Amino acid sequence: MAAFAAVRIIRLFIINRGTTMSSPASSPATKTPERSVFPAIFNGFRRRCPQCGEGALLTGYLKPVGSCSTCGEDFSKISADDGPAWATLLVLGHVVVPLMLYLGRDDTVPIWLAIGVLMLVMLVGVYFTLPRAKGVFIALIWATGATGEDFTANNHHVTADRQDSGQ
Ligand SMILES: [Zn+2]
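Above: inputs. Below: predicted complex with zinc ion.
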């Protein structure tokens, strides 16, 4: 989990830094204020607003809110995409696969019991982990400003510049 978080954070920082470095004349709308990453991750894991820690980040099980009901922070431009599912599989795989190997090698455990235990662990694990992973991803994207909008907009800008200069 720690390794995954570190890799993802580094990746988000690189993406975010790349956009600000390569767009010197960036508009004020694309500028994101300094935000603390680790408190945001903590609030995201609790499925709370990464800014105030009070308002709910998700409605129902997985649907993200458009804005915080307490502080009004806008989350409408943040999309976690398949990141939470990837993180959930990464975490649960490290639990389920060793358990599967253990149960598969133990001849005293009947196959129906092994399958039942594995299914239960997987279902409960996904139910617990997936919304928290989604909260963490939304909080990370919020904290780093890596919504992807600047990145794609900047790429279009670069392409247009190249065409203008005849390349
Ligand atoms: Zn809030």
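Strands lie at 58-59, 63-64.
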